[in-house]
Specification:
The chain is mainly β. It is built from one helix and 15 strands, in the order αβββββββββββββββ. The strands form four sheets. Strands 2-3-6-13-10-11 form a six-stranded antiparallel β-sheet, with no helix packed on it. It has a five-stranded mixed β-sheet with strand order 1-15-14-8-9, with no helix packed on it.
Length: 221
């Protein structure tokens, strides 16, 4: 009897062990591989800082452009086909009618722009405001095209004094500390304008600390 009970207990123990061995945990992983885990993605709240482009300030005729080094005022800008070249005339180097005798006339396919500007040196040292006929000091934009050309100077007046004729190769384009000059000149752009009352833009490059800054005047005749 005892032997039968012993055999029954042994059989029950073996069945219990077999049941425990068969239930090793359901991983729901095909092929018995490790359980997959998909990490939760966090939404990024960071934003990309895009630097803003510097605002281009547009000025009107008679307004002043200012940097740490200089003040510049465009007093006059006029499209024309002829410039007075009579040094004794009150309108020397200003716009005149194309049939005027004493005048420089623009060739076909060209237009002149009569310019008068005043410049004031705010720096602690003197400087050359235009070098020796640097081409990029002044430029003109007309009908979407920018024209960089030689500036042809006529006369200048320093600190309200007498007018002095400016001669290429002899005149020094120097501005002393605290000096204010008014200068009359003209530009020659290689385009025949459609109408002398058309709007155009005059651009000037001025010293700004160790760099330069460009200012734009919108001319509405």
């Amino acid at each position: 009897m005892k032997r039968v009970i012993t055999i029954l207990l042994a059989a029950a123990l073996m069945l219990s062990m077999a049941a425990c061995g068969g239930d090793s945990g359901n991983t729901d992983t095909p092929g018995g591989g490790a359980p997959s885990s998909t990490p939760t993605q966090k939404e990024s709240t960071a934003t990309l800082d895009v630097p803003e482009e510097p605002e281009i300030q547009e000025l009107a005729l008679g307004e002043m452009a200012t940097t740490e080094n200089v003040e510049f005022t465009l007093d006059n800008a006029q499209l024309t086909l002829a410039i007075c070249n009579d040094w004794g005339a009150d309108n020397y180097f200003e716009a005149v009618e194309v049939d005027s005798a004493a005048s420089y006339k623009a060739p076909i396919g060209h237009t002149y722009i009569a310019i008068t500007f005043t410049i004031n040196n705010l720096d602690r040292v003197g400087f050359t405001y235009d070098g020796f006929y640097e081409a990029d000091f002044m430029s003109v934009e007309y009908n979407g095209e920018t024209y960089i050309t030689e500036t042809r100077y006529g006369m200048q007046c320093s600190n309200g004094g007498a007018w002095e004729q400016m001669i290429k190769g002899k005149t020094t384009y120097w501005l002393d500390v605290g000096e204010i000059k008014t200068i009359v000149c003209y530009l020659d752009i290689p385009v025949e304008v459609e109408n002398f009352t058309d709007t155009f833009k005059f651009k000037v490059l001025l010293p700004k600390l160790a760099e330069t800054a460009q200012f734009t005047y919108v001319i509405n005749p």
